[in-house]
Amino acid sequence: MELLNHLQKNRNTAAVDLIDNGTDLTFVDQDGQTAVHRALLNGNTETFVSLVAYGANINILDAKGQSGLDMAMKRKDLNLVKLLCYFGAEVALQDWVLLSGDINSLNKQDQIILKQILDQNDRLAAINHGSIGYELHQLKPKDNIQYFSGLFVDMNTENITSSFFMYCAKESPEFTSSQIQKENDEHFFSDVFEVIAWGSKPDFIDLDIRVEGRPHCNEKLRLLSITGVFLKDIEIQKNQNHNDEETVISVQVSLLSDAKFTIVSKVVPEIFNVTNESLCIHPQMEKEAEIAIPEGTFDSAGQLQVNISETKAWNHEEDEVVDPVLFTNAIDLTMLNHSQPQKPVKLTLPVHSSDQNNDDIIILMSDKEEPEENEWEIRSNVDIHGKFISFDVNHLSVYIACSKQHLSKSITQATNAIKREVQVECFAMIKKASDGKLSLIIEYALKNKGKSRRKKWKDKGFSTMSVEYKDCVMKEAQTCKITLTGNIQTDSLRHQDPFLTLNPKKFRTGNYRSFHLINDTSESPLEGEVQIERRHEIIKQLQQQQHASSGTNKETRMFTNCCHKSVKHFEPEMPLAYDTDFELVVSLPIDSNILDIKQDEVGVAADDHQCTIPVLRKTSLNRITASLSIEECNQLGTHLHVSKNKIEQLETNGKLKEILLIWRPARPYEKLVHNLSEGLKEIDKDDMANNVEEAFENNIEYPA
Question: Spans of the ANK repeats (predicted)?
Fold first, then answer.
């Protein structure tokens, strides 16, 4: 009651203090309204944010059946509508007066609000299944806590002098691509990140973002700002402390306005000035390589372009233990003035491993920048010394050392590596929840990761189709359109088909799209396909239009007769037009018979059937609290924002060991894993927090 009184009288500071001290956020007044409804009605943004940060339910309905989003829509408060969508508000479009008329007749602000809502309906499936993640925390001075570790974002808290609230989110680029103005030859290296802060915030915050994978040796990274201000260039370093390869990117973000950004990559060859003097070049992209140019090799000065394509990953596309067939990276040498050497140039390249048979090494050469398999030539004069291969070249081209014994496979892998084409398993999986609702995921997985990726989805309750997957070859950063055929219906309110981009570096989180289906399988079975199509351009020649009149223009004839001897005859160029078409890559059949699934086949417990995250099962949570003292259970509940009244009630009844069962909802979601881990760290139980995170990664219960 006290909290609602403060909100009614706009005493925001007092309200935030009460929330921070653990007041009951579930209290309902005579109108069926909670603190969330009151904060939204009064437009108290910071108070509303604090309620969400401390676990208030933003989807609860008042006595009139209105949610917080309904109220914000009626107020036409775009700021609050955005916040509610950011925090995962559920959508019920059929109830909104805004959609009762012609959408095109709406004013500009209403159209912006409507677009936000249409986007939100698609985002909810992504939030539920992990391709959009967010965290909201109150940051306090001198707290040695990594608040956003669940998003793989670390932060420097040294400049925090007072408490404030901060929201951090990351999402796959497909959800933001229409807002991103990247160059045509740039590709997404990271997800899209968003940072918003409220209250007595500092001017800026330093973030370390851990991104899956690392840039290729010939790639440069840059920060691409969508909104906001970034105070200095990004700093990039490899993370050496993890088994999985990661790149740590340091970003300084201004908190004076909302910020949204991503990291993009671009292939940037190295350029070297060359004269007729001798020169020894060690490219930065592969420092152990050497290009030795003798004196008098070139008649005149020019610039040598060097590009190196990494090949090691292509050795293990199908199996991590197969013998490699590509022994070095591929090096591409080009003089920008198109000159060729008058003397042999000696190339020295480091080998990936010194285990190969020296008699098995040959050199593939091609004068094409991206050769096809039939455009390679073979050379065999190679010097081998330790972990280096040396050979002379008389023509600047593309060179790579590979296996003579497995020549056909070597040529295929070399071609794919230079084109950055990878073998992919495409698959679709469906989950039927206990309430009958259906979810569909569609994923591209690298060939050697497909089995483990499907296992992760199976552990979350999804089932494979009768055709478990289909193989195809895709280019890195290839964007494909996804079309659902037959009677498969999603709850999306958008008319355009969704897209999905292949980023092979996302080996941990995967490349996937998720959908909520609205089919009622009790009435009719699912029948249809998932069609994945790649986009390509078609060049058309346009026929020139005939003159409207068939008569001859007298002035034109006179001009022609006077000038035809002095004007060269020419045929006008045929006008060209560019069109976009889609080519089918693969189609995946969707089966209806897989929906009759037993619970023990989808990784759920019989007595906890709505929980598909093993580490959050009741048995797991009981193991965690069994290792804690009563006081530690009390502290953990406080850090997890369990209301003070509920903690006191459990303590009175001698049931504080059940604190996590009170905290966890009936249908837990992934974000709670990270909240639990952070709560354990706050009570100095780092080992237990690590056990929670490892159990989540391995899809198992908390260890006994």
Answer: 31-63, 64-96
